[in-house]
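Example record used in the benchmark description.
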Amino acid sequence: MSLQFHHHPLSSYCWKVAIALDERDVAFEPVAVNLGDPTERGSYLAISPFGKIPALRDTTTGQCVYETSVMIEYLDQRFPGATPLIPADPAAALQVRLRDRLFDQYVHGLVQRVVSDRLRPPDKRDAFTVDQAHADLRRTYEVLEGLTAPAGWAVGEAFSMADCAAAPALFYADLMEPIGAGRPRLAAYYARLRERPSVRRVIEGAKPFFQYYPATPEERARLAAQGLG
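Model output (structure tokens):
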């Protein structure tokens, strides 16, 4: 098996690539990463020099790829034959890349800002930053509501890289700041994502680890209501 996927089961960015691997039906070796272990971290830096997860290592080509959108492009290029996650049509591909960036920067990024604050010592936490992240997330929901079609996927009828990014981003964002009934198109799109087999599998695979997620009591109750707590 030539492809190694270095990951953590709770990481939303890892889910993004895991969904792409599932959609492309690419065989790979999963390698769990423990960045808290100094020896393991040192070895991992040879694959991902910024120490971020996930990363792909192709033992056949010697290529290491450590940015999620580029990983998905790599899968499309390296393993042709299946339906690509980035369309061949340049205009459609541009829209896929745009939405991929929106979900990564304005949903994933905001969720990570809040989670990072929770992991700090109590005297180092920043309530203003957390409140601002929640406000920015609500603003992002409004933008996404306007961009979301009443049916189909993020860009047309084909599941794409944009949907790989959207599924984990919206899972954690909705846990933290519920999308709510006031954004019906976005809520319906998220419901469609949750029914996608590749998305269901990645969430189910993370189920044993949700106990370690730094959730608030309200979030813990939401996880429990989904059978994940």
